[in-house]
Amino acid sequence: MSAATSKLRVWDLPTRLFHWLLAVCVAAAWWSGENGKFDLHFILGYVILGLLAFRLLWGFVGSPTARFAQFVRGPAAVIGYIRHRLGKPGGIEPPPGHNPLGGWMVVVLLLVLAVQAGTGLFTSDDIAVDGPLVSSVSSRTASLLSTIHRLEAKAILALVLLHVAAVLVYLLVFRENLIRPMVTGWKSASRKG
Could you tell me the pTM of the whole model? Predict the structure, then answer.
């Protein structure tokens, strides 16, 4: 039997646009926060909140590979996928789109970014910069949310680096290009024939 290669539709245009816009906005928000460009930082925070709201909705009504039900799986599926990747018995082949492990990375990133953008609305540096909703909470709450916002920026950086490292591992170790499908929407699929 020989193996033939075909194209498999993986990501729709809204999912791809969301991914790249979010990546650019998060990078720009990090830069603007680090460099005191708070007017831009706040605008980017609003855009990120809008993107996250879109992705939440798209996770329920979007194309099959964009839906949370397709890629958010329990521990057994994650373990089965890891076994599959390691070539061990009992492994499961993932469906098109996010694998079970990558699906959980998506969930974690979305949640952490939602907390980050949400806390930014209530953040204050007690000098010149206040989030738009800081006056609706006590100074103690604003201080707590400001601390979470600052600390989570480091967590987001770590998660982004982990995400990029995973993409590189797939490319260099597993010889699976995850970047091209996130640009074109299509991935190569081998089939036995």
Answer: 0.90
